[in-house]
Structure formats: C-alpha cells, structure tokens
C-alpha cells in the first residue's frame, strides 16, 4: 500500500512539473519579444533578447562538459565578450561541439574575430544537482562541469553576468545551437506521470490478486479441516 501511495505522489509531482514547464515556456515566449538594454539590471534575465557589441576573450573560453545533441556527446563552447572594461563579462553560447573519442583530447575550435556585434536571447541552463560545481580543468581550453556563476567570477577575478547569451547573430560563428531553454518538455513529464500511475495501478492489481488467492487458500484449508 505504501508503494502505491508513493507511486501516485510521483505521478502527481510529474504532472505539476509539466504544468510548471508550460507556464515557464509561455513566459519565455512572451519575453522573446522584449529586448533588454545594456548594462543589464538585476531583473530575471532568462528569455529576453539582447544585442551588444564587444571584444571576444578567447583565452577565457570554456567547454561545458556532458552535453548532448541528436545522440552525440560533447560540449557547449562558451566564450566571454567584454562590452566595457569595467563592466561584467557576458558569456556567449557558441554552440555544441562533438567530443573527441579520447577523454584527454579537446575538440578543435575555430578562431573568433577580435570584435563583434552579437544578438540573441538570454537563458540560464538547468543545474544537475549531481554535478553542480564548476570544477575547472585547465588546458588549451578550460573544461568545466557546471556553470557556477560565483565560482566563475572568482576564477576569472572579474564579474560575470549570471546568464548565457544564446547567439542568433552572427549565425556563421560557432556551431549548431538549437534554442532549447528547458531540458525536458512538458510532454516528457506527462509521459513519466503516466508511467508512475501505471505502476501504481499494477501494484493495486497485484495486491488484489494476492489477497484473493490468500482468501481462496484459507477457504480450501477450512474445507479440508471440515
């Protein structure tokens, strides 16, 4: 009985997550029509459009580990851009880079122009609670496990905007970068909810079957004693 209750609660939680994701996607859609001005304030940044001009800092480039696209495993190539020396750096998402076969190898990355006008949408990647720390690995390009903004500012000794700019223009820079501001769509959560509810129904049916068989067994024992 306890297992059934737990499974039902898990199903309800997945339905709540689906509703939350629907609301969040609607908010992002509305924000996509609203541009922000630089410098950015302290408002919630995710989803808004932004256009800025600045100098690339390729020596500070990052490879965000454990990313996937169309079944391939790889990295997100992230490079900060400096709009003004005294202002926070803006980290730009230049797309998905497939990982080499060997872990000790890093992908080849193209050169960036010294200066660009960039435009796109701001977003904040989801956090994997099992890998929420920056954990930088120094090399030709620094590999990180998560975007931990305070730790990144400490690493660079410079303030960083706590959001990524998903680059729309110039489109020729970087690699493939489909706009996916959420990790799991509402439909996925609904499918998980159906699985949990199905398991709950299965538990109930198994419990009823076992109870019925036990009743028949006790009746047979009573008949034999009689």
Describe this structure in words.
- With 226 residues, the chain is an alpha/beta fold.
- Helix content is 35%, strand content 27%.
- It contains three helices and eight strands.
- A five-stranded mixed β-barrel has the order 2-4-5-8-6.
- A hairpin with a 6-residue loop joins strand 4 and strand 5.
- It starts with a helix and ends with a helix.
How does the SSE layout of this entry go?
Elements: H1 2-31, E1 35-36, E2 49-56, E3 62-69, E4 72-82, E5 89-98, E6 115-123, E7 142-144, H2 149-156, E8 160-169, H3 186-225
Family: Belongs to the SURF1 family.
Main location: membrane
Pfam families: SURF1
Our estimate of the beta-strand percent is 25-35%
Elements, N to C (H/E): HEEEEEEEHEH
**Between the first and last Cα atoms, what is the distance in angstroms?**
34 Å
Overall strand count: 8
Lateral arrangement of strands in the main beta sheet: 2-4-5-8-6
Whole-number average pLDDT? 86
Query: Over all CA atoms, what is the radius of gyration?
Result: 25 Å
- Kindly give the count of domains: 2
Shape: elongated
Quickly count the helices: 3
Main β-sheet, in a few words? 5 strands, mixed, barrel
> Which percent range fits the helix content?
25-40%
Report the uncertain regions.
Answer: none
Helix/strand/pairing class, anyone? Answer: alpha/beta
């Amino acid at each position: 009985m306890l297992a059934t209750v737990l499974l039902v609660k898990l199903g309800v939680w997945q339905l709540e997550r689906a509703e939350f994701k629907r609301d969040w996607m609607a908010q992002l859609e509305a924000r996509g029509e609203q541009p922000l001005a630089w410098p950015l304030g302290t408002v919630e940044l995710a989803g808004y459009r932004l256009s800025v001009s600045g100098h690339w800092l390729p020596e500070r480039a990052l490879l965000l580990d454990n990313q996937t696209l169309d079944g391939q495993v790889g990295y997100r190539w992230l490079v900060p851009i400096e709009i003004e020396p005294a202002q926070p750096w803006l980290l730009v998402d230049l797309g998905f880079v497939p990982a080499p076969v060997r872990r000790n190898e890093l992908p080849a990355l193209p050169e960036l122009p010294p200066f660009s006008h960039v435009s796109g949408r701001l977003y904040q990647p989801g956090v994997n609670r099992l890998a929420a720390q920056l954990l930088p690995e120094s090399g030709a390009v620094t590999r990180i496990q998560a975007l931990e903004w305070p730790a990144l500012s400490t690493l660079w000794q410079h303030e960083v905007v706590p959001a990524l700019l998903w680059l729309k223009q110039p489109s020729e820079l970087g690699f493939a970068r489909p706009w996916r501001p959420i990790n799991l769509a509402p439909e996925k959560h609904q499918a998980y909810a159906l699985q949990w509810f199905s398991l709950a129904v299965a538990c109930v049916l198994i419990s009823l079957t076992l109870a019925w068989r036990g009743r028949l067994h006790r009746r047979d024992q009573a008949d034999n004693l009689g």
